[in-house]
Design goal:
The chain is α+β, with helices and mostly antiparallel strands and 262 residues long. The chain is built from 12 helices and 5 strands. Helix 3 crosses helix 9, helix 4 crosses helix 8 and helix 7 packs antiparallel against helix 8.
Length: 262
């Protein structure tokens, strides 16, 4: 991780007259350590996704830099709103949403910072179907690196502990992506991400919502969040088939799903 970040900083090399990105990172850490850690995580996930997409090495570094600075605008927001432990009011959420524009304006002061890094700060909450913010951009209007950061940002946020909720299981996050509608994301990017994340858990032991344990033995490519499980008593459970059988039979109870990864 340190090597990836160090190599990435080469593309952010500063003239002596310009702001030091290292100083910016240090300030991020001092103001709010949780946001700083999130930015590091998003940078590394963005790097991995860029590699899965077979981006050039230079573009992999660019994706990492975009992830690293995507939330820099949050450090210009009121601390009482940024650090509020409970649910935000609509007015407070409106304030939080300004971090995209604030981040862009902050980074735009420095000519040496790559344009895609500035765009990622501005556009990482935009969605390909136009449902995002701050401008409701869609499709090719959104920087390709911002599209990568969007996926990395959501995945890290949902798989991390928050004061108001526990971290979600990666398979639950994959289901959330599918339920929300993958048309909101660059199709190639989100499908590549979901496939590779799901495959990374092959042969992992999991617990199911019915209390059983088992190992992931097969990934359903048209339903990544519902793989095939071999339970500890050697029963084969296809979560995809079980889900659709539940729909066909109009069962009221919830279908079995993965609860945790052991």
């Amino acid at each position: 991780a340190n090597e990836i970040l160090a190599e990435t900083m080469r593309i952010m090399r500063q003239d002596e007259s310009d702001i030091s990105v290292f100083d910016m990172l240090l300030n991020m850490k001092n103001i709010d350590d949780s946001v700083y850690v999130h930015c590091i995580d998003v940078a590394l996930i963005s790097n991995v996704l860029a590699r899965w997409l077979h981006f050039s090495e230079e573009d992999q570094q660019m994706a990492t830099a975009c992830g690293l600075f995507h939330d820099v605008g949050k450090f210009l927001l009121p601390a009482n709103v940024l650090r509020k432990p409970g649910k935000l009011t609509p007015d407070e959420f409106s304030i939080i949403k300004t971090h995209t524009i604030e981040g862009f304006h902050l980074l735009n002061k420095y000519k040496n910072i790559p344009h895609s890094v500035k765009n990622a700060a501005l556009m990482h909450h935009e969605k390909c179907d136009g449902s995002g913010y701050p401008y409701g951009l869609s499709g090719d209007e959104i920087d390709k690196f911002a599209k990568i950061v969007t996926i990395a940002d959501i995945f890290d946020a949902m798989t991390s502990d928050r004061v108001y909720r526990k971290a979600m299981c990666p398979f639950s996050v994959m289901k959330a992506f599918e339920d929300e509608g993958i048309q909101k994301y660059e199709m190639k990017y989100i499908l590549t991400f979901l496939e590779n994340v799901a495959n990374s858990y092959l042969n992992h032991r999991v617990t199911l919502t019915n209390g059983m344990e088992g190992d992931v033995i097969f990934i359903n490519r048209d339903d990544y969040s519902r793989p095939v499980i071999r339970t500890t008593n050697d029963e084969i459970v296809d979560l995809q088939d079980e889900y659709y059988q539940g729909i066909m039979n109009l069962r009221n109870q919830k279908s079995v799903s993965i609860e945790t990864i052991i």
